Amino acid sequence: MTRIRQFLRFLWDFVVGDDWRIALAVAVALPVTLVLSNNGVTVWWLLPLVVLVMLSVSVWSVARSRR
Amino acid sequence: MSGTEVGLAVSVFIACTVEAVEALTIVLAVGATRSWRSAMIGVGTALLALAAVTAALGPALTALPINVLRGVVGGLLLVFGLQWLRKAILRASGLKALHDEGAAFVEETEAAREAGAVVGSFDGYAFFVSFKGSFLEGLEVVFIALTFGANQKDVPLAAAAAAAAVIAVACAGVALRAPLARVPENTLKFVVGVMLTSFGVFWGGEGVHARWPGGETALLAIVPLLLLFSLGTVAALRRVVAARPTAAQAAGA
After folding, report:
1. Is B75 in contact with A44 (Cβ distance < 8 A)?
2. Residues of B in contact with A41 (CB under 8 A)
């Protein structure tokens, strides 16, 4: 059990890293883009927007916490 | 070679160079301090394990339909790239300590000395530390090479770029017998973060049927825009860090 836990912890750190909110935002943005695209909405801008917003949120929250 | 292929090869080469430099530091530290033979057996075992991972994952990835592959693997690459870019921005702005191969080498060397005397011809410590360092850094190399290669349907090109990086770093390490502290690792990580994130956005978007204006040429806009945004964020964060009171000022207040 400990080995499985350690492996899952390693996978989490490897893929998700220090800020899980970024991974969550990407995990939400991809299916939303898919649904909107399949319904004829021009939505190429959504993923870049999510990247810029989440990157900013993540690094600025670190800056605020160090003040 | 198309622009995307050049981008793929350059990104994989730089990313793998950075990872190989970090693995080299660990192997050099335990090899020089304890046992070269055991450290090299550790590296060899790690390479075999990485080859097994690649052999298992590579065909499975390339067998996926391209849209599924780009959606899932592009998304993974995007999350992974954002991790790199986030850390690179924090390092460049002074909110996180810069990675220093010289310091890492000293730290690994001290840990190796404190691990007790080497008994017999095989040193378990040197083997394990060398194996772990090479395997974990190598895993990132495999991940980057496979995701880039599979998305572009050109795993051999990605593998060649990765192998070239590892060989170049290994040769430099053998020649110098010292950690490659002069490699501008933090800058390279910044560049890799931008490239991984840009390709992740592009392929992830394609995988979920987003139609990029201009098709593949959209990458020529995504990469510089993300780079400019990241540099702008670093500049803004540096101003915040510089405006922060020092410990002495805070104590006097």
Report:
1. no
2. none
Contacts of A25 (CB under 8 A, 6+ apart): A50, A53, A54
Q: What is the mean pLDDT of residues B123-132?
A: 91
Which is more confident, B45 or A16? B45
* Residue spans per domain, chain A: 18-65
Render pLDDT for B216-241 as a digit per residue (tens, 0 to 9).
889 899 999 999 999 999 999 999 88
A14 neighbourhood in chain B, CB within 8 Å? 139-140, 143
Domain count for chain B: 1
Domain extent for B223: 3-241
* Structure confidence at residue B93 (pLDDT): 92
Name which of A17, A52, A56 is nearest B83 (Cβ-Cβ). A17
Nearest to A63 among B197, B230, B240 (CB): B240
> Which has the closest alpha carbon to B203: B86, B81, B56, B83?
B81
B146: in domain:
yes
Q: Is residue B80 part of a domain?
A: yes
Q: What ipTM was estimated for this complex?
A: 0.91
Residue of B nearest to A65 (CA): B95
- Is residue B251 pLDDT above 70, yes or no? no
Q: What's the mean pLDDT when you consider all of chain B?
A: 86
Residue B37 and residue B121 in contact, taking contact as beta carbons nearer than 8 Å: yes
B253 found inside a domain? no
The answer to whether the CB of B76 falls within 8 A of the CB of A12 is no
Alpha-carbon span B37 to A31, nearest angstrom: 50
Amino acid A30 reads: L
Cβ distance B169 to B20 under 8 Å? yes
Of the candidates B144, B185, B136, the residue with the CA atom closest to the CA atom of residue B161: B144
Q: Is residue B223 part of a domain?
A: yes
Say if residue B114's pLDDT is above 90. Answer: no
Kindly report the pTM of this predicted structure.
0.82
